[in-house]
C-alpha cells in the first residue's frame, strides 16, 4: 500500500485512535465502537478506510470480525518519514550500537 493512502487514512483523529485501540489486541466493531460517541456504522466506515489503506487486517471469529493492526501496512509510512531525517536516524543507530557494545 502507498504511504499516501496510509497518511490520508491516519489524518482523521478517530482513525488514529482506532489504530491505537487495535495495536496490541484484535477487537470487534462493537468493542471499538464502545470507545467512541459515534454510531457503529460510522466506526465500520472508518475501519473500512483503514483496511483499504492496508493498515488493518480483518479475521473472522465466529459471528464476529476482529480488526488488528497490520505492521507491514505502516512500513510505507515509516519509509516515507525516514526520508526527512536519514542522517539523524543513522546517528541514532550508531549511538545505540555503540552503547550495546560498551555494555557487553
Written account of the structure:
The protein has one domain: Arc Repressor Mutant, subunit A (Orthogonal Bundle). The chain has six helices and three strands, in the order H-H-E-H-H-E-E-H-H. Strand 2 and strand 3 form a beta hairpin. Strands 1-3-2 form a three-stranded antiparallel β-sheet. It is an alpha+beta fold and about 100 residues long. Helix 1 crosses helix 5.
Strand order of the largest sheet: 1-3-2
The overall strand count is 3
Overall domain count:
1
Order of helices and strands: HHEHHEEHH
Radius of gyration: 17 Å
Mean pLDDT: 90
- What is the level 1 CATH name? Mainly Alpha
Q: In terms of structural class, how would the helical and strand content be classed?
A: alpha+beta
Major sheet attributes: 3 strands, antiparallel
Tell me the CATH architecture. Orthogonal Bundle
Instruction: Specify the number of helices.
Output: 6
How would you describe the shape? elongated
Would you tell me which CATH topology applies? Answer: Arc Repressor Mutant, subunit A
| Poorly predicted regions | none
The CATH H-level superfamily is Winged helix-like DNA-binding domain superfamily/Winged helix DNA-binding domain
> Termini distance?
40 Å
How much of the residues is beta strand, in percent? 5-15%
Residue share in helix: 55-70%
Please write out the topology.
Elements (H helix, E strand, L loop, with lengths): L2 H8 L2 H9 L5 E2 H5 L6 H13 L3 E6 L2 E6 L1 H12 L3 H18 L1
Helix pairs in contact: 1-4, 1-5
In brief, what are we looking at here?
The chain has 104 residues and is of the alpha+beta class.
Amino acid at each position: 500500500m502507498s504511504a499516501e493512502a496510509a497518511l490520508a487514512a491516519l489524518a482523521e483523529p478517530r482513525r488514529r485512535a482506532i489504530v491505537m485501540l487495535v495495536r496490541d489486541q484484535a477487537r470487534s466493531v462493537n468493542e471499538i465502537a464502545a470507545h467512541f460517541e459515534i454510531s457503529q456504522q460510522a466506526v465500520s466506515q472508518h475501519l473500512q478506510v483503514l483496511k483499504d489503506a492496508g493498515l488493518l487486517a480483518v479475521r473472522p471469529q465466529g459471528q464476529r470480525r476482529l480488526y488488528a493492526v497490520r505492521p507491514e501496512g505502516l512500513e510505507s509510512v515509516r519509509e516515507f518519514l525516514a526520508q526527512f531525517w536519514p542522517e539523524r536516524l543513522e546517528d541514532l543507530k550508531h549511538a545505540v550500537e555503540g552503547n550495546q557494545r560498551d555494555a557487553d
